[in-house]
Amino acid sequence: MHAANSEEDRCVKIVKEGALQPLALLLKEGAEKAKEWALALGSLAFKSEHRSAQIVKAVALQPLVTLLKEGSDYAKECAACALGNLTARREERSAQIVKAGALQPLVALLKEGSEGAKAVATGVLMHLSHNSDQRSAQIAEAGALQPLVSLLKEGKGQAAFVLGNLAFNSEERSAQIVDAGALPPLLKEV
Predict the structure, then answer these.
(1) In a designed cystine with 39, which of 78, 134, 136, 171 is the match (CB 3.0 to 4.6 A)?
(2) What is the pLDDT of residue 24?
């Protein structure tokens, strides 16, 4: 319990001491290696709506989405992690992230990213698709179905949750998921 409190205390102190603006500046204008500090923003956003709101205000979402599109492989993974922590259980922010153009680069990570990047992108898509038929449709339209089915076939169970979200309330997407070959690996999951 003490360790969790001390971690929370460190995050509060980092924000209180004014670190968000310098981190935002690094993300927007720093050298490629410095942009990997996006991971710090994700850590600060974790489990804190207040800090998440402060991060969005200080950084805005576009630099994270730009990093997701154009950064090094590791920077893309860091940006996806930060976006994932900013989206978790946050309806309005999820819509903002989609509007900022994050879906195509997230799908690209599903297809071409490292194992870690694929897992992080899957988690972000899980948050984005949760309880939103509109975002689920947008995720499917962005081309996520086949890469998610491929991940499912590789034994990546988290992909099943995203596919479940995408199929919810949509016979058309459900049929597309079955047509993509998801049924055999899904049956193995149950």
Answers:
(1) 78
(2) 76
